[in-house]
Amino acid sequence: MRSVVRIGAEGKGGGEENSAAGPAGRSEIGAATESSTARAIDARAELIQALIPIGLDAVNELLQQEVIALVGARYSRDGGQADCARWGRQPGSVYLGDHKVAVTVPRVRDLGRRQEVPLASYQALGRPRRAEDAALLKLLKGLSCRDYEACVDPAAETFGLAASSLSRRFKRASAKKLAELTKRDLSGYDLVALFLDGKTFGDDQMVIGLGITISGEKVVLGFVQTSTENERTCSAFLRGLVDRGLNIQRGLLCVIDGSKGLRKAVDKFFGDQAAVQRCQWHKRENVVSHLPASQQTTYRQKLQRAYDQPTYTKAKSALSRIRSELSVLNASAVSSLDEGFDETLTLHRLGLFEELGRSFKTTNCIENLNALVAQRTDKVDCWKNADQKHRWLATALLDIEPRLRTVCGHQHLTRLRSALQTHLKGCLEEVA
Q1: Do 121 and 108 contact (CB within 8 A), yes or no?
Q2: What is the pLDDT of residues 24-81, one digit of tens each?
Q3: Which residues contact 325 (CB under 8 A, 6 or more apart)?
Q4: C-alpha–C-alpha distance, residues 197 and 258, integer Å
Q5: Which residues fall within 8 angstroms of residue 79, CB to CB, at 6 or more apart?
Q6: pLDDT tens, 327-346?
Q7: Residue 345 and residue 275: Cα distance in Å, rounded?
Q8: Is the Cα dihedral 388, 390, 393, 395 positive or negative?
Q9: Which of the two residues, 343 and 96, has the higher pLDDT score?
């Protein structure tokens, strides 16, 4: 059986050292590099050529051992089971790693019953152990179905690597990831904050929920598909999170951008159980977008300095002065600043801006998550249906989640919970 090894061309070096060397220096460096590369390739090829036959020999040995157990040793009248006899051979395949490899399978027949006796070892070897997970990881990292066959580790007579075969593997694996995420029990997470934001997939928005536990860990809660971040769809999404065990009784800090639909959904469904922190970055950019280009940098800096004030009183006073200046320049900028004004200062009102502002004054936590999702999904240039979008997004989110870092200032989150409970209780008393 032939072992085929495809070796790709090595890229040429081009750093500062190479450009500084003379022609002779480049020749010597190139010769040394080529020699080193050749040795590495030879060593890898030798290892592959040695290991593949070993794996195939082990497969054949296992199959023969089961045949001997069923019919006895060849040319022997002892051993084996009554009425079982060898019955020729047939072509078959087994999995070595994530590769499907052709083998010759011995056949056994029960003469009394006149039926084939299946080999348990062959059935076990025919089940892919890592194929779906390997396919999922390769596609998620950017390898297209069409390029897969040229990039996998060389294997002897491998087959089943066509684009359609790889696509089916990915669909099965990603469907499992989708089920895992959408059915995840949220009752075991002690959440103190919730980030909500949308990610574009084709013509749709996927609103993603990212929870922050009391210990500062980031947990992907789920997502919902919608054309826009509208109140009805987002409310249904939040209701689904609660139905899956999300506990809001101890209060939540909800961090959102300027989406009116998200804001209405949080107010409608969470009510007095949540305080909203509007993203200061989005607010700042929305305000300066109404100004002439010559004034945008100046007021961007002024707004940033105002939001960076350590206390609620100082921040509100600084923003009020900016508002007075803008009232002379641009009424639309004033209206933008007024909309959700107090909600951009929620952390200031809670007295924790200096401790937790870095993590919770903007939607950066979930924006970073969306950027990581984009690295895995933006290479898909044709979204065919909703199922495809859901599978890809769930797979990307679960791949990213273990790599997410603990939020900065997590040691102050117990104080955040206490401040939230005091603040929300005060709001209830004001209403009463």
Answers
A1: no
A2: 444 444 555 556 656 655 555 454 445 667 677 778 888 888 888 898 888 777 778 8
A3: none
A4: 10
A5: 68, 71, 72, 73
A6: 999 999 999 999 999 999 99
A7: 11
A8: negative
A9: 343
Rounded Cα distance between 87 and 115, Å, is 11
Beta strand extents in 227-374 (DSSP E only)? 252-256, 274-278
Q: What pLDDT score was predicted for residue 52?
A: 65
pLDDT in tens, 172-224: 888 999 999 999 999 999 999 999 998 888 788 899 999 999 999 999 999 99
First to last CA, the chain: 83
Note every long-range contact of 298-306, with CB atoms under 8 Å and residues 24 or more positions apart, other chains counting.
Answer: 299/326, 299/333
Q: What letter would DSSP give residue 157?
A: T
Contact 401, 373 (CB under 8 A): no
Domain ranges of the chain: 22-128, 130-183, 187-431
For the beta sheet containing 204-213, the strands, ordered from the edge strand earlier in sequence to the opposite edge, are: 218-226, 204-213, 191-201, 252-256, 274-278
| pLDDT given at position 201 | 83
CB 206 within 8 A of CB 392: no
Angle at 373 between CA 370 and CA 376, to 5 degrees: 155
Cα 6 to the chain's mean position, in Å? 31
The DSSP call for residue 251 is -
- Residue 397: other Cβ atoms inside 10 A: 24
Helix axes 231-243, 260-269, angle to 10 degrees: 40
Is the pTM higher than 0.85? The answer reads: no
Residue type, 243: D
